[in-house]
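Field reference: sequence -> structure
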Amino acid sequence: MLTRVACRILSPKIITASCITFLLYGCTSSTPQPPGINKAICWNQLNGWQQDSFKEALPALFSQCPKLSKKTPEWNNICSAAKSLTSSSDEELRRFIEDNFTPHNIIGTAGVNEGLITGYYEPTLKGSLEPSHQYNYPLYQTPKDMLIIKLDSRFKELKGKRVRGRTVGNTVIPYYTRAEIDQENSPLKGEELLWVDDPDAAFFLHIQGSGRVQLKDGSMVGVGYANQNGHPYVAIGKKLIETGALTRKEVSLDTINQWLKENPGKAQALKNQNPSYVFFTMRHDLEFGPRGSLNVPLTPERSAAVDRKIIPLGTPLWVSTTLPGTEEPYQRLVFAQDTGGAINGPVRADMFFGRGSRAEKLAGEMKQKGSIYALLPKPANKKTQTNCQ
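Structure field:
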């Protein structure tokens, strides 16, 4: 980057495009805004802020209040005051948010506030509590031999990373990969939680993180994320793009699933390129959504997964993007209540769409550009927005 000094030493006969820019704007240096939650802005800078139905966001707020109210005085005050909001109008709710929070820009690594917004949902699979010829693809619980390694107090580079391992003799080595787990003689035999009838559906369940399984007698059980094998998530859609099997525009949950069905001999090899493997636990509170990383039930279209290293869980967010296909504006108040292996970076969110055909379609197609704004609680003694017109 050219500085004031660099502009001085250039010959008058050699004027670069960069120096022209500096000549036009005073030839002064400027520091780009750092990535992450940045400066405070005004509410009128949030596109669509006046149009949202804030009543729809109340369940997500209420679900996290028991946890967040214990963390800071600000959240305790907000949650106490929110108890009286159940019969409030959208305008009253909007005013409540404006009185108690301040919107902040979230800047990406390239210095801009635009990033990727995707989606996920709660699928329904068919399964059995016992294996059979039809139901022979296992979902595993957290293996008893898997070590959860916490060394970040000694090695700072491990902070925030999921380090998993197993012992061979007196040596700790990385835990099994997907290829090792899904082989015919799986090392996890005996750790099955239940069995399903479709290996591809099981694979996508790992990506979604939770779901429902309809048993042979018609009853329904829930399965939720319990743990992960410590290996990084690799998107197989990206692998299909790299090989030319699909274009970037074509990639969606449906097209990837179709490719797997049409190429059964290559399907497992492709899935093995994603070494990440998810382990599940049973959940029986099916009247609520699955629980995210904040350990509260997720609210359809009002909960989102984020990178918790950048955005603290529980943070209210304003998401401004579009819907796939129609490019219709999709702007709403959501809450950071989950995380995901592929959700990394500042301007990155994965919207939880719930369950059903609409949720599946949106989750499968959502890969939109968008902006995210963090709504941070105001100090308890500062309840009005200042310096805004």
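Note: Residues 57 and 302 are 6 Å apart (CA to CA).
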